[in-house]
Specification:
- The chain is of the alpha/beta class.
- The protein contains six helices and five strands; from the N terminus they run αβαβαβββααα.
- The strands form two sheets. A three-stranded parallel β-sheet has the order 1-2-3, covered by helices on one side. A two-stranded antiparallel sheet has the order 4-5.
- Helix 3 links the parallel strand 2 and strand 3.
- The radius of gyration is 27 Å and the shape is elongated.
Amino acid sequence: MRMLLQRNFLVVVLWIIGVVGANLYTVDCLPHRILLDTDVDTDDFFALLYLLKQNRSEFEVEAVTISVNAWADAGHAVNQIYDILYMMGRDDIAVGVGGDGGILEDGTILPNVGGYLPIIEQGNTTVGYCRYRQAIPVGRRLHIDSNYGIRKAFLPQKFR
């Protein structure tokens, strides 16, 4: 009987040491802080929506920056991002608009390399009938600006 009591006591002591020891090695995990840099094209909308739907204790979107290029106009792009954030109830996220340049992998900053120069250089020499300039409606700027009308019609608006 005494042996059984000692064995049970030893099991309880080891269990307590295990529980206390396990708690000593746990670390409070902070959420991954995310800065989303986007050119505001369709894939980036889905990426932003995906991030906003994640558990905020695991992923925290801190800011969204917009890199203007041949695909997006800064004015419409920033409004589209604001509307998505408003729709998702995340007006607390900062939004910034960058320049027309880009950054290479080695950190070199390119000055204003928007998509207009390649269109001008392209001229009429493109092989076949596939020309980017033919995809832009006459009198319009960028093809993505057609999202402006869709945004005004379907996304909830907030006064800014």
